[in-house]
């Protein structure tokens, strides 16, 4: 059993879900204490600079929580967002993340990233925040992700984009207006129009 002071730190880690040393320093806990708790087996290291409680409850989206902690300015997009929203049968091996056009490419030692560069307007539009294992994960909405797939059809495949559009419209009757809104932002309205007309 950890001492009382350590119990406070462990409760904090459990509440935050996944922590970096800087997260605990903001609560007055030095990083040396974090390392000591990891060495004692109370915390687990989940990649460079990421820790969880030893009894942490992992979910199928654990990797997304890790990426969100390490790349807070990014947004989960394209194939990974499709998978998150269950709009595809694809099982992407990489995590797709949207970043500003001139942002530095992140390097993660434990996860393969596919970076898509978005303009400011496209980057900001349609972002939802989901809590995954206590971590705030930014993911594009279903409609925005469908439009993004048409914009990046050369990367993800036109067949994947069409499948996502069909699945989205099958799930959301009246969802055409939402897709069209994001198609305009992504400048793919003309590209998508024939597929929308064929499906609707």
Task: Name its key features.
200 residues, alpha+beta, Beta Polymerase, domain 2, 2 domains, 11 helices, 7 strands, 48% helix, 16% strand
The succession of helices and strands, N to C, reads HHHEEHEHEEHEEHHHHH
CATH architecture of the largest domain: 2-Layer Sandwich
Q: At the first level of CATH, what is the class of the largest domain?
A: Alpha Beta
Structural class by sheet pairing and helices: alpha+beta
Q: What strand line-up does the widest sheet have?
A: 3-4-5
Radius of gyration: 20 Å
- Mean pLDDT reading: 90
Oligomer: single chain
Number of domains: 2
Task: Please provide a written account of the structure.
With about 200 residues, this protein is an alpha+beta fold. It has two domains: about 5-55; about 60-200, Beta Polymerase, domain 2. It is about 50% helix and about 15% strand. It contains eleven helices and seven strands. It has helices at about 5-15, 20-25, 30-40, 60-70, 80-85, 120-125, 140-150, 155, 160-170, 175-185, 190-200, and strands at about 45, 50-55, 75, 95-100, 115-120, 125-130, 135-140. A three-stranded mixed sheet has the order 3-4-5. The protein has a two-stranded antiparallel ribbon with strand order 1-2. Helix 5 (about 80-85) runs antiparallel to helix 7, helix 7 runs antiparallel to helix 9 (about 160-170) and helix 10 (about 175-185) runs antiparallel to helix 11 (about 190-200). The protein is elongated.
Please summarize what this structure is.
The protein is of the alpha+beta class. 48% of the residues lie in helices and 16% in strands.
């Amino acid at each position: 059993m950890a001492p009382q002071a350590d119990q406070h730190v462990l409760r904090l880690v459990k509440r935050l879900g996944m922590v970096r040393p800087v997260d605990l320093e903001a609560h007055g806990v030095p990083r040396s204490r974090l390392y000591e708790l990891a060495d004692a087996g109370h915390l687990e290291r989940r990649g460079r600079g990421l820790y969880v409680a030893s009894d942490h409850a992992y979910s199928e989206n654990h990797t997304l929580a890790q990426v969100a902690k390490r790349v807070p300015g990014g947004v989960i997009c394209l194939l990974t967002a499709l998978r998150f929203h269950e709009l595809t049968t694809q099982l992407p091996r990489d995590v797709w993340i949207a970043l500003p056009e001139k942002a530095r490419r992140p390097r993660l030692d434990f996860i393969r990233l596919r970076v898509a560069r978005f303009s400011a307007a496209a980057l900001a539009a349609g972002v939802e925040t989901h809590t995954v294992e206590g971590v705030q994960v930014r993911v594009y909405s279903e409609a925005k992700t469908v439009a993004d797939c048409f914009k990046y059809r050369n990367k993800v495949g036109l067949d994947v984009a069409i499948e996502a559009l069909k699945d989205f419209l099958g799930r959301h009757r009246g969802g055409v207006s939402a897709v069209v809104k994001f198609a305009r932002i992504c400048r793919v309205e003309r590209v998508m129009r024939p597929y929308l007309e064929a499906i609707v």
